[in-house]
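User: I'm curious whether this sequence folds into something compact or stays loose and floppy. Could you predict its structure so I can see for myself?
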Amino acid sequence: MASQDPAKAPLREDELKQVTGGVGDERINGTSANNNYSTGYGADTVMGWTGNDTINAGSDNDIAGGQAGNDSVDGGEGTDIVTGGAGQDTVTGGAGSDIIIGGTGADLLMGDAMFGVHGDDNFRWHPGDGNDTIQGGGGTDILVIEDGGLSLQQLLGNIRLDAGSAQPSIQSNYINLTGVSGTITIGNETIRFTGLERLVPGSYQYFQGRTE
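Assistant: Here's the prediction. I'll summarize afterward.
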């Protein structure tokens, strides 16, 4: 696939497949094709469009969004704002203190401050990710605690409830968080959450037919 310099070449919807940026602050607007976008250094803004896009925003403080389609969006290094838009998206913040916004589809979200909006979203948190904030939205939203080695009973014991919160309860293979808000402390790290429905440990099937 050919690469184009977005500063020099117009974006043709029927031809463009890959855009590779360079050094400097760039703005790249997508097309209706299924495109790959990759930028380097600089505070970049990369917005896909209606195709199923893959976006790697690179270094520095970037804004990246998938718009419509089933997209994979990675903010890379820096303090980024990364969004999925419509569709079943995988949205990753990368290194740095990032804001992750899912959109209207069933999304997989991995980052620091994560917001699910609509859809049945899955939030992934690993020990070592730091102190993060997670807010679900419409749909059945699930928080997966990866690699912590904790049982459901241990996870339940690590939850501290906000005033007026509902009580969490252990079900067959998850903790019911409907109406629950508060914090989960694992080691020296704390997750603040609200608007979630389920808490599960370890590897979890987050989209039908797909596992992580």
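Summary: Helices lie at 152-157. Residues 205-212 have pLDDT under 50 and may be disordered.
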